[in-house]
Amino acid sequence: MARNQEFYWRRLHSLLGVIPVGLFLIMHLVINNFAVRGEEAYNQATQFMESIPYLIFLEVFVIYLPLIFHAIYGIYIAFTAKNNTGRFGFFRNWMFKLQRWTGVITLIFLAWHIWETRIAKAFGAEVNFQMMVDILASPFMFAFYVIGILSAIFHFANGLWSFLVSWGITVTPRSQVISTYVTIGVFIILSIMGISTLVAFI
């Protein structure tokens, strides 16, 4: 019974990592990428997002609560999972390890990013282009954001591969090889988007 419960918890954890958390990550990267078009374009994009009706409700129930569950259960998985080289092989075993490491790094990054932006906004700060320019003016913070964003994107892309397997979408070895290439492509495209956004702020 306990094993069945863990199976369902893991499937829920995987699902929430893609929908809605993964979709929000993509949307966030797309909106932020307006920075490459200049300060005015970025500020207009963020103001549009702030004007969405019932934004607080959406943030709490569609983003934060699923994210909190995914993070807490992800920490449990990260510190209890045992690597199985016999089951996964060399490449997948490394992906398995990196998924856990990037999960922890992403959690630290997200906590800091939320503190610097959403919490700061609650205390009266304006979340705009200039805020990000000021944050990324420090070489340390720029490097921190590069590592954090790449970790988040890898965690999503590799988690997408696991989601397809665990939900029975890719069951054959061929389909899993194809999904490996697709998710690598997702990682590359989103990484280019994320890094180009950071560069635009400096």
Entry keywords:
single chain, about 200 residues, mainly alpha, 8 helices, about 0% strand, globular
The radius of gyration computed from the alpha-carbon positions, rounded to a whole number of angstroms, is: 18 Å
CATH topology: 3 helical TM bundles of succinate and fumarate reductases
What structural category arises from helix and sheet content?
Answer: mainly alpha
Number of helix segments? Answer: 8
Unreliable residue runs: none
Mean pLDDT, to the nearest integer, reads 90
The total count of strands amounts to 0
The CATH architecture designation is Up-down Bundle
Query: What proportion of the residues is helical, as a percent range?
Result: over 70%
Oligomer: single chain
CATH homology superfamily: Fumarate reductase/succinate dehydrogenase, transmembrane subunit
**From N to C, what is the helix and strand string?**
HHHHHHHH
The biggest sheet, with number of strands, parallel, antiparallel or mixed sense and barrel status, is: none
> N- to C-terminal separation?
54 Å
User: Which CATH C-level class is it?
Assistant: Mainly Alpha
Proportion in β-strands: under 5%
Tally of separate domains: 1
Shape: globular
